[in-house]
Amino acid sequence: MEVKTFDLKDIGTEERTFTGYAAAYGNIDSDGDIIEMGAFDESIKQNRDKIKILWQHKSQEPIGIPLEMREDEKGLWIKGKISKTARGDEAMELMRDGVISAMSVGFMIDQADYDEEGRRRIKSGRLMEFSLVTFPANEQAVIQSVKEVNEREIERVLREAGVSRAMAKTIVSSGVKSLRDAERDTAQKQHLLDILETLKEY
Fold it and tell me: By C-alpha distance, which of 36, 55, 29, 20 is closest to 142?
């Protein structure tokens, strides 16, 4: 199985999803190969449900699934979701901190040839997985955003907006619906609901 790695960047927080390019087309990677545009088109169409997100290319450590995959002139763009597991939590934290900053695709070559300069040009491949990895081979494929809902972050925003610690914990643990249904002072309730609306920006 072939492995190609690409950079990640622009880490955010919300929903345990991330977006970016798992493969870049047209440029030379550190192995001297060039993946051509459309190389994974058929593979995505035929095997979309079988493609997984792994940790460091370890088949025994799946950490998520692709939600969207599409090809454009730049490369293979993906939106992935990281599972709520110990390894998934670790991956999210490392991406947010910039420690893990690359993706890498794992695929089987179906068709390739060599140009006059001896560089292998990959025309078609069966995409099997893409991984979060430590070191990239191609700097043009990057993670553009990572999003995760974080209860501590929600509580922090509420506290900074003037909500008491006890109330903030109640909102986080019980959810917005319990606040909407609660019997409390109308003005205070509306104030809290207005604050919750601002959380959509985080």
Answer: 20
Q: How do residues 47-78 score in pLDDT, each as one tens digit?
A: 899 999 999 888 899 999 999 999 988 899 99
Nearest residue to 195 via CA among 183, 164, 184, 174: 164
pLDDT at 82 over 90: yes
pLDDT the model gives residue 106: 87
* 166 SS3 class: helix
Say whether 124 sits in a helix, a strand or coil.
strand
Please give the pLDDT value at position 177: 47
pTM of the predicted model, to two decimals?
Answer: 0.65
**What is the residue extent of each domain of the chain?**
2-147, 151-201
The answer to whether the CB of 39 falls within 8 A of the CB of 123 is yes
Report the sign of the C-alpha dihedral through residues 39, 42, 45, 46, in that order.
Answer: negative
Helix (H, G, I), strand (E, B) or coil at 4: strand
Instruction: Check: CB of residue 147 under 8 Å from CB of residue 13.
Output: yes
Q: What is the rounded CA–CA span in Å between residue 147 and residue 200?
A: 12
